[in-house]
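Per-record layout

source: Kwoniella dejecticola CBS 10117
name: CN hydrolase domain-containing protein
length: 238
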Amino acid sequence: MTKIRVAIAQTAPVVAPEGPAKLEKPHSTSPFSTIDQNLTIAVEYVERAAAGKAEVVIFPEYFLQGIVNQNRQYLTFPSKHLLTFLQTLAKIHGIALCGTIVHGTREEGAGPIPDSNPFDHISTHTAKSTHTNTKQPGITPAQLEWAKYLEKHPLSTEESAQPVLYNTAFFIDEKGELIGEYTKKNLWHPEREYLNIDSQADPAHAQDLANQGADVIFAPTFWYTDCRPPLKYTLPLL
């Protein structure tokens, strides 16, 4: 089997406060300031991994958006732009990336989600980064568009109670190409109240992949100390 050099980015995401986005009047900061911070952290880890000649960087679950329950699912609405940023990051540094992004949807009638990229101000190099402007005044046009959208189209009672979210793992190669995605089907018990479809807890999944010729399985996970597994999952995970 070919050897690969893997970097494990053991990050803990900056988590947004519970509740909807904090929107000032007039709007002066991004509604996604915690994601800005987590993107900057990701850039730093990728640079370190590339300098260490790693070929793949593995990030944990939720490494960009943090936990998205308790009316924080607005953090999932610009998810496609996070994937675009990571593809660019991988290509520039010539390194593959693996992690997860939570994708969210809006109910019918909520208004179209903006196409503008609220993260286009984030640098893919720490030397050029302004640390995402989170410590500086001002708001970009894209951030302002998103702030106005979230103000005009807040979460409905139904969306808050039963959000439609998909925890999706990705693998991006060193050329920035999205090689594959996997939407989580077996939820860990603390997630079941707010996520739609822990797959590694069932050894059958690993066996199935091995039967298909897989040599390595990347399983990006993020557990809090209170994520005590159900008794049936106290056996080895893989």
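summary: Residues 21 and 31 are 6 Å apart (CA to CA). The chain has one domain: 6-233.
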